[in-house]
Specification:
about 0% strand, membrane, about 70% helix, mainly alpha, transmembrane, transmembrane helix, YgaP-like_TM
Length: about 70
């Protein structure tokens, strides 16, 4: 697995988690969904992703997007 795929899996899991928390706990968790969306847009524009930095530190090999 590359960092690119790990970031996509992580983002997808976080969106699903935030939707579940919004449904079962509180509508305040919609802010988590907004944060995830803003972070995805920011990383697409700037090329910087905090999750990619963490995955790189864990030793996952880089892909095309996050070198």
């Amino acid at each position: 697995m590359t960092i690119d795929r790990a970031v996509l899996v992580f983002a997808g899991l976080m969106v699903l988690l935030s939707v579940a928390l919004t449904y079962w706990v509180s509508q305040g968790f919609l802010l988590l969904t907004v944060f995830i969306g803003v972070n995805l847009i920011q990383s697409a524009i700037t090329g910087f992703c905090p999750a990619a930095t963490v995955f790189r530190a864990l030793g996952i090999k880089p892909g095309c997007a996050f070198k």
